[in-house]
Amino acid sequence: MKRNLLSLLIVMITVQPVLFGQSGMRQAGFRMGYTGEIFYQLSNEAGNAEIAYNALLGFRNNGLQLSGLRIVYGTAINSISPDLYFAWGYGGHAGFMNIDRHDYYHDSYGFQRRQFCPVIGIDGWLAAEYRIREIPLNISLNIKPYLELTIPQYVRVMPFDLALSVSYIF
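The structure corresponding to this sequence follows.
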């Protein structure tokens, strides 16, 4: 399963220049937070804003989640720094978890063996991103709140999935 998803991600990255007629800014990196993720992002100018599409591959609770986000970057805040951008976005995720216990408020319920639990959810995105122009690097402080349905367990709300992201621009 992991090999198939990795192969799909590699194919998407290599075929992407053929699919898009316009050249955009591409970046790849990792996100360090509650949900550790690697990501690939493609962005293009759109009027006064910059629109980006982000594919994230996350690892949480002995499982794997694939997320897709549409992110809107506002113009740079020149009064603070011309390289500081604020962004917002939305998207969704799907995947699975292998869990052996369920935490509910202050109680923990254990299972006799690990359970395979499919996951589907919706995501939000808020970020402050600093772009280092001298070297092709972006550093972002972001929050990705989500609401997910884990079958057969529960509905989970995570309002503060705060993370630091580092990406390479190419």
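Confidence is low (pLDDT under 50) at residues 18-22.
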